[in-house]
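Q: How would the structure tokens look for this protein?
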Amino acid sequence: MTRPAALLEELESLLGPANCPSDPEVIASYITDWTGRFEGEALAVARPADTAEVAAVIEVARSHGAVLIPQGGNTGLVGGSVPRKRRQEARPQLVLSLARLARIEEVDRLGLRLLAGAGTTLGAAQRAAAAAGLGLGIDLSARESATLGGMAATNAGGLTVFRHGSMRDRLGGIEAVLANGSVVSELSGLAKDSVGWSPAALFAGSEGTLAIFTKVMLKLVPLPRTRLVALLAYSSPRAAVEAAAAGRTGLPSLESMELTLRPGMELVTEQFDLARPVGLDEGAAAWLTLELAGEGDLLSELEHLLSAVPPLESAVATETAARSRLFSYRERHTEAVSRRGVPHKLDVAVPTRRVEELLASLSARFAREEGCELYLWGHLAESNVHVNLLGPAPEDESLDDAVVEIVTGLGGTISAEHGVGVAKARYLGSARPAANLALMAAVKAALDPGRLLNPGVLEPT
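A: Here is the predicted structure in token form.
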């Protein structure tokens, strides 16, 4: 291992001083994650401009015995996009920021494909596609900061998985750099191509441990002619879950179905000075936020559900601004919780038939924890619940253990869409059979034997 000064000198020669900052004040935002719970140490931040420079940074890091922590928009919630603490990783760490790889290269209207640099934000890609009358088929509340490369690396899900699938399903191809510096490319844009393994399928969800995405090709979908958002208030989580079950089969135009509960709705209303949502003053305990998108009579479609499972109250919007206002009660939950403190965030999913049991079990378990606030919300169409705990110290994992125990006991997963990162590495043994973990380890050893890329992530502890 060479001296850090020599490593920095070579990086500066490669990228220029402006794109290799090492001043602690300058790199502070790169070494702390969005939640504020995870923070590490880095020698510097490397900001390459293209695929060739990414490969060159990898070679510099390898030759100096350093490791690389890939980072997109740093909107991750499990500590996987920031460096480790020194006790977790003794080698020099470099944050590899892909923010400069943000060029949209092509929107192919005939082939329904968008090609962009890995540092392109979701919002920028959505606008480029919309200009051609097309959509990405994926959406997140962090759309203006989450990047396509980071979303591919974590197999991000978001609001429209029920209809269009997760990021792995949306990928039409990728370009990536391996730990040995070689470039793997799969950018033909062909709808059918069955020649061997797909790098896109292999690297999606690998959280930067197998390769560094430099370009992402996404499949596009036609934009629907009309949209409708409905906020439906129910007397109990059970009633909301029953309505969701009816909506899955009775709403052909359903694009997203979001669940919120009373504690979260009260918090959002208080934090952002929003008008009190329908049902809050009538004692509602749960809400569904539905978005329908299509070509037909969406209001008639919705009315069929409302007559089958009547809510306490409802609000419906079809105009863009009004739809946004209704959806904001759901979308601002994450920000509202983070305003109150550093949350413990667990992104879980259980079999559909056990969602109600999950909500009840979590509420009962944490009602007896003094000083702990529990906020639950999520993507109910996919039985995906976001568990947020305020009160425990960031390093206290005992309540995380309790959540995982409940979820795995119900046959669920510890990560539905946010990834494993370092936050959940200790639970991998309970989340996957030993043979699966051995396969993951074998692929990692084959592609990155020196553990150069994101060490500690997706590794059982």
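The chain has four domains: 4-97, 104-222, 226-334, 341-434.

Residues 238 and 398 are 28 Å apart (CA to CA).

Upvote if useful.
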